[in-house]
Write a structure and sequence with these properties.
The chain has three domains: 300 residues, Thiamin diphosphate (ThDP)-binding fold, Pyr/PP domains (Rossmann fold, 3-Layer(aba) Sandwich); 177 residues, Rossmann fold (3-Layer(aba) Sandwich), CATH 3.40.50; 131 residues, 3-Layer(aba) Sandwich (Rossmann fold). Helices cover 41% and strands 11% of the residues. It contains 25 helices and 18 strands. It has a six-stranded parallel sheet with strand order 9-8-10-11-13-12, sandwiched between helices. α1 packs antiparallel against α10, α5 packs across α16 and α14 crosses α19. It is elongated and about 95 Å long.
Length: 688
């Protein structure tokens, strides 16, 4: 058991010590009340109910260094119930992080570092962006998975470099969300003993008592998942401390501490009421709270004695980090190669020369599905990149994402393969938690149509600028016989709509290689690799442009004579081959055509204006875009005089090549459409 000191129960100290505890707890409580009241916006109920738990955890158990929020071996606190953000901001300020009392006063204001929900990268000490309920808990499970893997990889006898706990604080709302069930299930299956979840069981949601909708026995549910479960009074400090100590000693199971609490604790008229959840208490009620807690009228009052006690965390944090740094120095002497790896991965660097592991494909190798090419790339680079790990939502044989010979996480020593199970939503959240280790680059795979299940977590990854790689296969109606339920049509547009998410849809095996290179080098946000099921030719690059053009998002794959096109063909993914066939037919007929492969709208949009003009010259108005998905968005590239071969309806059940033909994706249709745009034929694309 870690002994950070627990709440004293000796009678000789009880009175004086309890006064200090109460003073500190009420400081948290009233900072929250005043901040919400000043902002005239926020959620006072949760910070008021959870102040006791926050106080015990942060001052007695949480191993952290406020002077260095990024110390690698710190414990992680995740406020999954992100609406209670002011609780976290108060704890950060009081324990000595770079969050000031003025920042507390600016709660929820423009350009403040204390926004309505915690935002990763904005506020020192915030471990992840939370607010959408269940996302934080899912991230915490991913953090625990990262802890397990890093500990296996780096720890050696006498050198516990990776020795931290993860403490998510969750609400009834978190417990109701489906992502929580998925995440808790896999956490129990993996036996993530460093995960200690605290559940605020207050029986209140916005619409009223939880009896309206939520009457299950949460403790039994989590026991069924394989968790260690305890129940505590959320205001009995020794009991809280005992439960946390017991949870730390349970190393084979994740722990759930169910704390019976009261929303808006200390408010005479609003405690245990839904109105305490998401609105200020009001001037008169705040006066009553002050009277009940014997608190001064001064707004944002912080007693010196309380602040001094909280700031002891600074000394403890410096001591813990200094001890760890000394440990690492000795570790580097005894295990220099591992120490070098540690530094590389925590600095976001890949080993030198890793790109030499990237394969290249020759046309005479025959047709290859981009999903298969991706699998070969992944197997090649994974041998060199120990920080690359992940898996699939029960679709590894189809998505080609299983790393042969590299074992399973938690089952095998330093296992790299993760079986997420049929839990796409959780998979997205877990990937975010692993990426937040800043030592690992995780990937997760499923069919493109099921990216809908992952969308909330993908959005959070983009918001947090996390390096996560999504592998989405079976990328169009060419999936075939499974029919419209499994045929994505609107999904590319939906993913492209997410800011800071790069979507890459490579045309052939070699574009897939460069798509992986791009994703592995992109540190400032997540990347989607959208891959096909059907086999396609490997483009002969002695005749056409190099596939490294993918790195610029769009490039001239095949040029018109003298570089003077009269029409532009644009395409992505497997439709590039259709466009290439149309290009060759049109050239045979003496039409000057330029073919542009456009694997990523986002990357192309980031290129300098001169390059974009070179690829898509404004003077060439005749344009045809070809993509087997909804046409929405292509207007920006084809303009008012161009046309789009897309699919603006759901798919159909039939063999893939038949579905494509019936939807008008044939060489003949593309040639005829190009001629019609040029005024050289009269033709209407039909989708039967």
């Amino acid at each position: 058991m870690k002994n950070y000191g627990v709440i004293s129960t000796e009678k000789k100290d009880m009175g004086q010590e309890n006064e200090l505890h109460d003073l500190c707890i009420n400081t948290i409580r009233m900072l929250a009340v005043d901040a919400v009241e000043k902002a005239n916006s926020g959620h006072p109920g949760m910070p008021m109910e959870a102040a006791d738990i926050g106080y015990v955890l942060w001052t007695q158990f949480l191993k952290h260094n406020p002077a260095n929020p990024q110390w690698p071996n710190r414990d992680r606190f995740v406020l999954s119930a992100g609406h209670g953000s002011i609780l976290l901001y108060a704890l950060l300020f009081l324990t000595g992080y770079d969050v000031s009392l003025e920042d507390i006063r600016q709660f929820r204001q423009w350009k403040s570092i204390t926004p309505g929900h915690p935002e990763y990268g904005l506020t020192p000490g915030v471990e992840t962006t939370t607010g959408p309920l269940g996302q934080g808990l899912s991230n915490a499970v991913g953090m625990a998975m990262a802890q397990e893997y890093l500990a296996q990889h780096f720890n050696r006898p006498g050198y516990p470099l990776v020795d931290y706990y993860i403490y998510p604080l969750v609400s009834d709302g978190d417990m109701m969300e489906g992502i929580t069930s998925e995440s808790a299930s896999i956490a129990g299956h993996l036996g993530l003993g460093r995960l200690i979840c605290i559940y605020l069981d207050n029986s209140i949601t916005i619409e009223g008592n939880t009896d309206l909708t939520f009457t299950e026995d949460v403790g039994k549910r989590f026991e069924a998942y394989g968790w260690h479960v305890q129940k505590v009074n959320g205001y009995d400090l020794p009991h809280i401390a005992f439960a946390l100590s017991t949870a730390q000693e349970e190393t084979d199971k994740p722990s759930l501490i169910i704390a019976r609490t009261h929303l808006g604790y200390g408010s005479p008229n609003k405690q245990d009421s839904a109105s305490a959840h998401g609105e200020p208490l009001g001037v008169e009620e705040v006066k009553l709270v002050r009277r009940q807690l014997n608190w001064p009228e001064t707004l944002f009052h912080v007693p010196e004695e309380a602040l001094t006690h909280f700031r002891n965390c600074l000394d403890k944090g410096r001591m813990w980090e200094a001890e760890w740094t000394s440990l690492f120095d000795n570790y580097a002497r005894d295990y220099p190669d591992l120490a070098r790896q540690w530094n590389e991965c925590h600095q976001g660097k890949w080993p030198e020369g890793w790109e030499e592991c990237l394969p290249m494909f020759e046309p005479d190798q025959g047709t290859t599905a981009t999903r298969s090419a991706s699998g070969k790339v992944l197997e090649g680079v994974a041998q060199r990149l120990f920080g690359l790990l992940g898996g699939s939502a029960d679709l590894a044989p189809s998505t080609k994402t299983y790393l042969k010979g590299l074992g399973k996480i938690k089952v095998d020593p330093c296992g790299r393969n993760i079986h997420f199970g049929i839990r796409e939503h959780a998979m997205g959240g877990l990937l975010n938690g692993m990426a937040l280790s800043h030592a690992l680059v995780p990937y997760g795979a499923t069919f493109l149509v099921f990216s809908d299940y992952m969308r909330p977590a993908i959005r959070m990854a983009a918001l947090m600028k996390l390096q996560v790689i999504y592998i989405f296969t079976h990328d169009s109606v060419a999936v075939g016989e499974d029919g419209p339920t499994h045929q994505p049509v609107e999904h590319l547009a939906a993913l492209r709509a997410i800011p800071n998410l790069v979507v890459l849809r490579p045309a052939d095996a070699n574009e897939t290689v460069f798509a992986w290179q791009f994703a592995l080098n992109r540190k400032e946000g997540p990347t989607c690799l959208v891959l096909g099921r059907q086999k396609v030719p490997i483009i002969d690059r002695t005749l056409y442009a190099s596939p490294d053009g993918l790195l610029r998002g769009g490039y001239i794959l095949a040029e018109a004579p003298q570089g003077k096109p009269e029409i532009l063909l644009l395409a992505t993914g497997s439709e590039v081959h259709l466009a290439l066939s149309a290009y060759e037919k049109l050239v045979e007929e003496g039409i000057a055509v330029r073919l542009v492969s456009m694997p990523s709208w986002e990357v192309f949009g980031d290129q300098e204006a001169d390059y974009r003009e070179k690829v898509l010259p404004a003077k060439v108005k005749a344009r045809l875009a070809i993509e087997a998905g909804v046409s929405m968005g292509w207007e920006r590239f084809v303009g008012s005089e161009g046309r789009i071969m897309g699919i603006d309806r759901f798919g159909a059940s039939a063999p893939g090549h038949v579905v494509l033909e019936k939807f008008g994706f044939t060489t003949e249709a593309a040639v005829a459409a190009a001629k019609q745009i040029l005024g050289k034929a009269s033709f209407k694309i039909e989708q039967k």
